[in-house]
Each structure stands twice: as C-alpha cells, then as structure tokens.
Amino acid sequence: MPASRFNAFTEYGIGIGLRLPHYQHILEKKPVVDWFEIISENYMVESGRPLQILDQILEQYRVVQHGVSMYFCNADRPNRDHLKKLKALTRRTKTPWLSDHLCWGSIDGRYTHDLLPVPYTWEAIEKTARNICEVQDFLELPIAVENVSSYAEFHASEMSEWEFLSEVVERADCGILLDVNNIYVSSRNHSFNPLDYVENVPHNRVAQIHIAGHTKYEKYILDTHDHPVLDPVWELYNAALLRSGPTATLLEWDDKIPSFDEVHNEALKAKNFQPRVPILKNTKLA
Amino acid sequence: MKPRVTASQATVIPFPTWPPKLAAIQRSMLQVLSRPLTRADGMTPDSAAEAAALVTPNDRLTSFERLQIYNQQYWWRLLGAFGEDFRGLRGVLGQRKFDKLAIAYLKEYGSTSWNLRDLGQHLEKFVRENTALTAPDARLAVEMVQVEWARVEAFDGTEKPAVDPQKIARTPPDRLRLSLQPYITLLELEYPIDDLLGKLKKRDTESLSNAVSNDRPQRSRRLVAKPGSTRIHLAVHRADYSVYFKRLDPEAYRLLIALKNGQSLEAACEEAFRNSTQLPENAIQNVQSWFATWMRLGWLCA
After folding, report:
1. Rounded (to 5) percent helix, strand, coil in chain A
2. ipTM of the complex in this document
3. Is the Cβ pair A41, B73 closer than 8 Å?
4. Is B49 an 8 Å CB contact of chain A?
5. Contact between A160 and A198 (Cβ < 8 Å)
6. What residue ranges define each of the domains in chain A, with the CATH number in brackets?
7. Where does the pLDDT of residue B10 fall: very low under 50, low under 70, confident under 90, or very high at 90 and above?
8. Which domains does chain B have, with CATH numbers?
9. Residues B131, B135, B138, B141: what is their CA dihedral angle, to the nearest 10 degrees?
10. Which are the contacts of B70, defined by CB distance < 8 A and separation ≥ 6?
11. Which residues in A lie closer than 8 A to residue B68 (C-beta atoms)?
C-alpha cells in the first residue's frame, strides 16, 4: 500500500536485507539504496560489533526492523524480556513500522527457532490477534504480520490461510507484510491457486511486500532465499501491486549470498512493476 | 475435518476436544520436532501417530513426510548453530563424537531463549556431567567449552563505561573498588586452548585458500594437546569489536579475580601476591604496567 497508517505513512521504495557479507561493501562504497531491512534479533544484543555496524548504517540509511522470533501465533503470550529488548532497538533504529511472522515457534518456554505453521482455527485467531495487540501496544509502532511458507496443513484447520490472515489483521487492526514468494511456495505445497490468496486479503492493510527465491524439490518447494526471484513470483508480485498499489518492497536473499550489486540489481527489478500500475478495485484477477 | 487414519498408520493420539486446543497442538508438535532424527536423517517412526493426528497428507506426501520436513529443519538448524559456536570442541572430539554429544545436549536442554546465541549456555555443565561422551579428553573438552562460550560472551556481552582514571588517582587503594567489564571471562586452564583455536583458525583459512586447487577433500584432523606443566591464565576479551585471548601472569590473574569479586585494590594486590615469588620492587612495576594495559583496553569499570 502507498503511505498508510500501517507503514507509518512512508513511501520507502525498494529495499534489501542487510546481511553480514555486504557490511564492508556498504560501509566503504555507500551505495544508494532506498532502505535496508534488518533482522531485529541480530541486533538485540547488549553491545559489541553488531551494534557498532548498525549505528554506522543508521547514519546513512533508512532501516526497517523485521523479526523472526515474536511468534504471534504462540498459544503463550509474548515474552516480556524479548519485547523490552526489541523496544530498545526500535528506539535506536527509529523503524517506522515493524514486521514479524504469522507463525508459532515456542511453547512453555521451549524454542524451536523455526517459523512453524498454525492450524487455522478460531481459537488461533483469537490468541494471535491478542498477541499482536499486546506487542503493538507495548512497542507503540505499527505492526505488519507476514504470511509464512509452509509444508504441512493441519486436520484441525477450519478455514483457508488467507481467511485466517484476514481475520487476524482485522481483529488486531494491524498491517500485512505480504510475502508473495511464500504464497507461491505454499500454493505449490498445498495445491491452491496463489491468485486466490492475493485477491482475498485486505489490500488496504498491505504495508510491505517481500520477494525472494525458492528451491524446487521433487515433491515440494522449499523457501530457501538462495536464488533470484522466479517468474511465477514476479507475476504474483505484479498481481499484488495491481491490488495494493506501489508498496515498499524488500528482496530477501539469506543463503548463498552473492555480491551486493547482484542482490541489489535483483531487487531493483521490482521497479519495473511499481510505477506503472494503477490500483484496481472490485476487479477479479485473471 | 477430523484425522483420517489408514490401517498402515499407527494409532492416532486423540485430542480431548475438537478442534484441539492450540496449546495442545503446539506441545504435540514440539514433542515431535525435538525427537532426534534417525541415522538416515529421517523422522523416527515413534512420531507416526502424532503426524497422523496433526497433519493431513496430500497427493505427494504423507502426513509423516510433511511433518518430517519440520523435524529435519529443527535439528539441522540447531546442530548448525551449535557447530558454529563450538568448532573447537568438534576439533577435539572429531565429527562423530561431536554429533553424538550435540544431539544428547540439545535433547536434554533444548533451547530456552529466543536467541540462538544462548544455545550453548548449559554446555559446560553438561560436559562436566557426561564425561563418557568426551572420554578420554574430558578435561580438554571442558576447557574448550569454557573458552568457546567465553568467546560468545565476549562478542556481544554488556559493556559498562570505563572507569575514570581520575577516580583511581584520587581514591586511596584501601577504598578503591574496581570492576571488570562483564564481557570479559578469566580462566585458569591446563591446556593451551588459545593455541589450539589458533591452529584451527589457521587450518580453516588454509583449507579455504586451497579450496579451488585441491580436488581431494582433506581429512579433518583432530585437535590434540597435552596438559602444560604449569597452569595457563587466560582472559577472553574484546578490543575494537573483535574477540581476543590474552595470557596473564598468575598474579595479574589473581588480582583481576579479586577485583571482580569486589575486593578493594589494596586487598586485591595482597591476594594476588600472597604466595608470589616476585620481588616487591618488580611487583610494583608489574602492577603499574598491568593497570596501564587494562586501562588502555577498557577492561576496568566502576
């Protein structure tokens, strides 16, 4: 979505993930980049090199925080210690909004360090919305929740993933980080039409979009973030923009990371889609 | 939709309510994920009943195979992070023994922190209590874990403001109390762990630089060492955002330990030189020199 309350009325353009192999290049060459997305947890430390690097980046660039361990769909409530550290980091980065995943990852104090799928039940909606509200209130920042890629579906599910996502964000009154690569990966793993997903989420809440590459195996697709973006994902990206309008977009490349220029050029391909599209309303996509 | 179970599947574990409570599903799934993989890196058949109860099959994968993807990711991620932090221990034990220890440790302790950095926080206790897993190098393994965990702490541990030199100058030694930066760990070792880790780093650098020209995979050599005739006193610290090891004189080590324990400068010096063979005039010179170094490195805080 263009500037809206879900991305703090910003228009951030095309960003890339800030990753360790690129630190030196960025600090020395100071390339022009609209913004960087950081993994919050990498900088939620007391001191040392991670924060020293971050401070240098913050002198030159706009940064948005993206988390991997808030686990909004946990049956348990959010971890207060985690939230306090996260809030301290948001004050340092002045992130205009903050994103994390629509998944669970810990129970009874045991952590899996994975983005695990949740059964799409009414109870899960209630608990997830409760958790997002609690985080949003504590951090005093707009929150965008990201759909994850998944490899399993639950017997217990009572609705589709996009119905679940839509209900959660309406109840929590938060934004969406729409990951079109994750939609594509899940659509192949669970045999649904990815356009149904893109079409049926509340487009006015899309604060940011993720694009990435994935890996195809014989019987499923894995969300590996180690390739350029594949054509079907660009098509979904285009479809999402047709609905949401120009939206802050971020390329994720987390494994087998090539040169900074290669990653940045891949991300900038998104510009080919952004300026041309008018926002379509009440129009079914092909 | 309720679980469909075929005759070939194991007994479905029933949930008391339908749909099951979210917490019950998550507990059940955690139980499955935290079961170690088989030798073939697959999910154990023990998880078949939970898989059938939790997850639907599709036209390509069974419930078991779908849940197995998460079981594999869980172990590969944790073992990967653990292996990164304790490369020295792997060098000491060799790959096979290290894997066995890692799985046993992660099975017993799992992760209780949102931060993977904390994964090894109980490892020293574990290797002390499970010497069968590290024999005949039990002592070497403990010391390697101590140093490698100290390195994790030194990398991003808390840094307090350095002590004001004026404060040192104007406070009488019997009332002057100084503290050590929380990111510094002081260790008394039997083995030259710093040298072993230096060797490992050199070996890794060489194998990287030879990666293109050397077609044959090199056999991973184990790190071996004998205990020294005297104890080694080591500070694991950081300077300019990098982690370093610094060997200390025994008296300097005792002095820092005493300061860390809250003793006054005067009492700490007495403690440090209690059984020392150093001549008093040398001792004074040494203390001055040590303090100059520690101040330069920012080790001392109020």
Report:
1. 40, 20, 40
2. 0.94
3. no
4. no
5. no
6. 5-272 (3.20.20.150)
7. very low
8. 22-154 (no CATH), 158-209+226-301 (3.90.930.50)
9. -110
10. A114, A116, A151, A152, B29, B32, B33
11. none
